[in-house]
TrEMBL record:
Residues 4-246 form the ABC transporter domain. This is Methionine ABC transporter ATP-binding protein. InterPro entries: AAA+_ATPase, ABC_transporter-like_ATP-bd, ABC_transporter-like_CS, ACT-like_dom_sf, MetN_ABC, MetN_ABC_transporter-like, NIL_domain, P-loop_NTPase. It comes from Agromyces larvae. It holds the Pfam family NIL.
Length: 342
């Protein structure tokens, strides 16, 4: 059984203009998030990612469908029981959402006070968490005295205070510079691996998916249009919309503007070849092109590394007769994916 199960979940909001249509923020979504997963949710702004997380956190009720966590259906629980369920879910935010009037220790202690834990237990737990996130020397400081990365560490410690099974992160590194992002991602990886906490990570940043997520779902207009292992979805996106999204974040695929530039500068036929895992196929392609007498020039390309597995795209300008190129591409298409620029 999945830790988090969404079945046919819909969330609509009232129309934003008089006489307008309701806004369908989440549209018939099915998801299974298993214990130990770091489940990335990606998509353009307005795709419904944040709404989805608010539903999982039971901060808002779904319009229809079923959301269950460890077998408990949130959609039928009374508010009193929902409060208990929320203690099992930690949440971190883009803008950290710390209390500026409380010290670092006070922020981390807050959910434990709300849960009514004894003072001695709270003190011991806060000390433990301060050590875990590397801020043991900052206990008495206030958020404004901290850097962005340190603030997010406090946010993570606070989210972990009640020992949740599930941690939800909504654009948790989007306000941080690249170096700090990597430090926070390292910490989140430790949270997942060493504490065994399942995570749902909403992001528009490739870095986060590449370095942290194990599974990924792509959302568009409220729907999950594609989901699976990160490597599979990023190296072979199937849905046209996820291809579009993936091509904006991975290296090596020319944008429509770049393609227009390539076409203007090169006389040959422009093709983009996709390679997965390893260089053998690349060498075969070059040998085959040369053997067919096709003159080729590498005009664009890049290689992506996702958790130790590589995939890449090379764009070539090919010059030979159309017939020779067509026959050669047909042979190569049995082994690699080739897209020709229109
Ligand atoms: N409280 C609300 N009332 C009305 N419409 C809302 C509300 N919250 C979200 N929406 C609408 O639902 C849709 C999905 O929004 P949501 O914030 O979930 O998307 P998102 O993918 O998280 O985008 P972003 O990355 O910009 O946060 C949008 O059309 C948004 O305008």
């Amino acid at each position: 059984m999945a830790l988090v199960e969404l079945r046919d979940v819909v969330k609509t909001y009232p129309p934003t203009t008089r006489g307008g249509d309701p806004v369908v923020a989440v549209d018939h979504v099915d998801l299974d998030i298993h214990e130990g997963d770091v489940f990335g949710v990606i998509g353009y702004s307005g795709a419904g990612k944040s709404t989805l997380v608010r539903l999982v956190n039971a901060l808002e009720p779904a319009t229809s469908g079923r959301i269950s966590i460890a077998g408990t259906d949130l959609t039928t629980l009374p508010e009193r029981d929902l409060r208990r369920e929320r203690l099992g879910i930690g949440m971190i935010f883009q803008q950290f959402n710390l209390f500026s009037s409380r010290t670092v220790a006070g922020n981390i202690a807050y959910p434990l006070h709300v849960a009514g834990r004894p003072r001695a237990e709270i003190r011991a737990r806060v000390d433990e968490l301060l050590g875990f996130v590397g801020l043991a020397d900052k206990a008495t400081q206030y958020p404004e005295q901290l850097s962005g990365g340190q603030k997010q560490r406090v946010g993570i410690a606070r989210a972990l205070a009640t020992a949740p099974r599930l941690l939800l992160a909504d654009e948790a590194t989007s306000a941080l510079d690249p170096e700090t992002t990597h430090e926070v991602l390292d910490l989140l990886r430790t949270v997942n691996r060493d504490l065994g906490i399942t995570m749902v990570v909403i992001t528009h940043e490739m870095d986060v998916i590449q370095n942290l997520a194990t599974k990924v779902a792509v959302m568009e207009q409220g729907r999950v249009i594609e989901q699976g292992e990160v490597f599979e979805v990023f190296s072979r996106p199937e849905h046209p919309a996820s291809r579009r999204f993936v091509s904006t974040v991975i290296k090596g695929v020319p944008s429509p503007d770049e393609l227009a530039g390539l076409r203007a500068r090169h006389h040959g036929r422009i093709v983009t070849i996709s390679f997965h895992d390893g260089g053998a196929a690349q060498a075969e392609v070059f040998v085959e092109l040369a053997r067919a007498g096709i003159a080729f020039e590498l005009v664009y390309g890049g290689v992506n590394d996702i958790q130790g597995r590589a995939f890449g795209h090379l764009t070539l300008s090919l010059e030979a007769s159309d017939q020779v190129i067509d026959e050669t591409l047909a042979r190569l298409r049995e082994r690699v994916e080739i897209v020709e620029a229109a």
